[in-house]
Amino acid sequence: MKKTPVAQLEASDLALLFDCFQPLSDPRLERRQLHKLIDIVVIGLATLISGGAGFADMEAFGEAKQAQFKEFLELKHGIPSHDTFGRVFALLEPREFEQCLGRWIKQKIQLAPGEVIPIDGKTLRGSHDQSRAQAQIESVSAWAQQQGVLLAEVKVAADSNEISAVPRLLPLLNLAGCVVTFDALNCQKTIVEQIRAQKADYVGALKGNHPQLEQAVAEFLQAVRTDRTSGVAYAKHETIEKDHGRIETRQYWQAAAPDYLPAFSQWRDLRSVGCVISTRTLGEQTTTETRYYLSSLAVEAPRFALAVRGHWSIENSCHWVLDVIFGEDASRVRVKNAAENLGILRRFALNLLKRMETPKKQSVRSKRLRAAWEEDFWLKVLRN
């Protein structure tokens, strides 16, 4: 790669990445700015892409790849020490740092009509520090199921819960034409109202937080399933999955929502209700579970099924990957803003890895291994 001074990156293939970080304020005193902020952030990001986890890894990876980094970073005083990485990430303002990820997403991600956008909460389990009276950091994320990327994330206030965070998350997203899914905790009239105001549809899980409504929906759908209704539009869809001796059958039932449901008019544009009956068989043991949903979607069972199944992608493809593949649950970084900022950097790395196409479809774990093993793969991911 031809050496390009940082000030002249407009023409380089890393220009967009650098532009995303340029507005970030440097929290250090000027006399302590031996290393450029952009150098610290980019080395940190490249380290997480390549299987690293913490600040010592950032120093080690920087030293190992110093010749390549010098092609596009200044590194006037060499590779920063692990103490420098730790100090800078502890001081960076998380909201500003999060906006860097937001700028990249706006430039790179184009949502297709009908995209399923699951919303769900997550806890940074290792962020709890009793000695500093620091509670675990909780956040709410929005995930693009088809694109396989994290769209946005907001921190849950220490004295609050997910319900208050979702209204701050939704305005960060261009939801027009998409289908937003959420669990029972976030099945709230105000959240539904905001989703519809942003010209999106919704599919929300219904559980014990609305017991009368849940019971009414369950009784209505039971009548639909046993053909005890007349003139009600309904549809059914079924899937069967077999894996490692387990057989799982899912029956999706969806019907036009009757206006006699409790508080019907308060759920904006409530057009249908649905349920999923999951039957799992493993050996001689069979279990059945039924879950209920409210939705603004018209009666079209395959689309309803796609949204319901798509919701779990945020757990399987985002939160699980962060916890297990990136080791987020095991991280013990806790000083000041370091845990939150390192979490944001992990999400940046996850998006870059998810968008990196390979001739053979590879998991995030495999791509991280390639980035660690191959000479230039990590750089290709950064350029992507």
Task: Give a brief rundown of this model.
With 384 residues, the chain is of the alpha+beta class. 39% of the residues lie in helices and 20% in strands.
Tell me what the structure shows.
- The chain is α+β, with helices and mostly antiparallel strands and 384 residues long.
- It has two domains: 6-91 and 335-383, no CATH class; 107-319, Transposase Inhibitor Protein From Tn5, Chain A, domain 1, CATH 3.90.350.10.
- Helix content is 39%, strand content 20%.
- The protein has 14 helices and nine strands.
- It has a nine-stranded mixed β-sheet, sandwiched between helices.
- Strand 6 (234-243) and strand 7 form a beta hairpin.
- Helix 2 (37-49) packs across helix 12 (338-355) and helix 3 crosses helix 5.
Number of helical segments?
14
Number of strands: 9
Distance between the termini: 15 Å
The CATH class designation of the largest domain is Alpha Beta
The low-pLDDT segments are: 1-11
The SSE order reads HHHHHHEEEHEHEHEEEEHHHHH
Total of domains:
2
Radius of gyration from CA coordinates: 24 Å
CATH superfamily of the largest domain: Transposase Inhibitor Protein From Tn5, Chain A, domain 1
Based on helices, strands and strand pairing, what is the structural class? alpha+beta
CATH topology of the largest domain: Transposase Inhibitor Protein From Tn5, Chain A, domain 1
CATH architecture label name of the largest domain? Alpha-Beta Complex
What sort of overall outline do the alpha carbons produce when their principal axes are compared?
A: elongated
Strand content: 15-25%
Lateral strand order in the biggest sheet: 3-2-1-4-5-9-8-7-6
Sketch the major β-sheet. 9 strands, mixed
Overall pLDDT level: 90
Helix content: 25-40%
